[in-house]
Amino acid sequence: MARRLILVRHPPVAKAWSGRCYGQSDIGLSRAGRAMIPALVDELTALRPDVVIHSGLRRTRALAQPVAARLALSPITLPQWQERHFGAWEGETWNAIYRATGNAMDGMVDDPDGFRPGETGETTAELIARIRMALQELPDRERVAIVSHGGPIAVSRMLLAGGSPSGLAAMIIPPGTFVVIDN
């Protein structure tokens, strides 16, 4: 069956988290992010997804619930679609991480199998394996909307296009946007 995936990145997060590594931290949307929801709901419901999935974190649920409600669907919570876990880096500013570790964060690309951000975070290989499994376990529907995060969306795009981990950064979409992939 041909499938259309609608990969949606949550709108911008609370201003206090701007410039911070938040990964799997459960933070809410900014005022600007909340203001984006009505237009996104209109755009996404026009694509008529048969199912709406979200990661379970507040910033994805805030969009998935009104999209599903408009379509008379119940949203599905699948934690596999959460952002990468960044270990001790979560909550720290990216500048502080850089000052403390230098170019260590390059390890996410340079050593995808072994580098753990924040010492206990998820390796790039683990993130890829998690998203590969999540894609394989999607409901058997024609049009699937997934409200997720930058990392899982980039990995999904890489897996579906046959790319490599070195190109992941270029596949991250801005907050409050989406891509449609027919496969």
The helix/strand order is: EHEHEHHHEHE
Termini separation comes to 9 Å
Could you say which structural class the secondary elements and strand pairing correspond to?
Answer: alpha/beta
Shape: globular
Mean pLDDT: 96
Query: How many extended strands?
Result: 5
Stretches where pLDDT falls below 50 for ≥5 residues? none
Physical arrangement of strands within the biggest beta sheet: 3-2-4-1-5
What share of the residues lie within helices? 25-40%
Specify the number of helices: 6
In this structure, how is the largest beta sheet organized? 5 strands, mixed
**Could you tell me the strand content as a percent range?**
5-15%
Radius of gyration: 16 Å
How would you characterize the overall build of this protein?
- There is one protein chain.
- The protein is an alpha/beta fold.
- The longest helix is centred in the N-terminal third of the chain and has 16 residues, at 31-46.
- Helix 1 (31-46) packs parallel to helix 2 (58-70) and helix 5 packs across helix 6 (150-161).
- The model has no long low-confidence stretch (mean pLDDT 96).
- It has six helices and five strands, in the order βαβαβαααβαβ.
- A five-stranded mixed beta sheet has the order 3-2-4-1-5, sandwiched between helices.
- The protein is globular, with a radius of gyration of 16 Å.
- 35% of the residues are buried.
- The protein is 36% helix and 13% strand.
